[in-house]
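Below is how a single chain appears once it has passed through the pipeline. First comes the sequence as given, then the structure the pipeline wrote out for it. We keep one example in the README because the format questions we get most often are answered faster by looking than by reading.
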Amino acid sequence: MVTGELKNKIDGLWDIFAAGGLVNPLDVIEQMTYLMFIHDLDDSDNLHAKEAAMLGLTYKSIFFEEVQIGDRTIDGSQLKWSVFHDFPAAKMYSTVQEWVFPFIKNLHGDKDSAYSKYMDDAIFKLPTPLLLDKVVTAMDGIYEQMAQIKSADTRGDVYEYMLSKLSTAGLNGQFRTPRHIIRMMVDLMQPKPDEVICESKTQNLIQINDCPLRGVA
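Resulting structure:
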């Protein structure tokens, strides 16, 4: 169970996403999951390198020297969380968007593997460099807090707590209708100020004067 300071840090990260314009809980959890994977990929690679060094074995990092991203060849070290999290916001944003996400999507050579099928839809959705910078900083704090907790499955508890926010978001009406859908509804319904609309999904009556449809075209 997630409690105390760790819970506060996760709640704070959730608020950062919302303040930055990413309000759909499904999108938030999806983006957090991708970023956790990127962070853990770096940690795992570092651990394997240390173990190989201790055993006197040869280990080739997945970030080794140059990495091919599309038609560009880049320094693989820039794809590591421990490296790009120190970049200025704009550089970090372009690195994650243009290099890191394409890199993780094509990490597995077998295009028919379960990994490739899942990651094929991986899309970077954070809208601004400032939001990414705040999210990365907050996630570093969460990982530091997790490292202090002596629990066998802290990671599982964190993810379970994140998922629990889906039901809370649903009750609080935080599954927002995309703006282009709202505009289409306005065009089709052409609501008048004195009319009342029944939303069948939640059986809520919405007074036009108080409705977000008003004035949207």
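The chain has eight helices and four strands.

See the next section for the split statistics.
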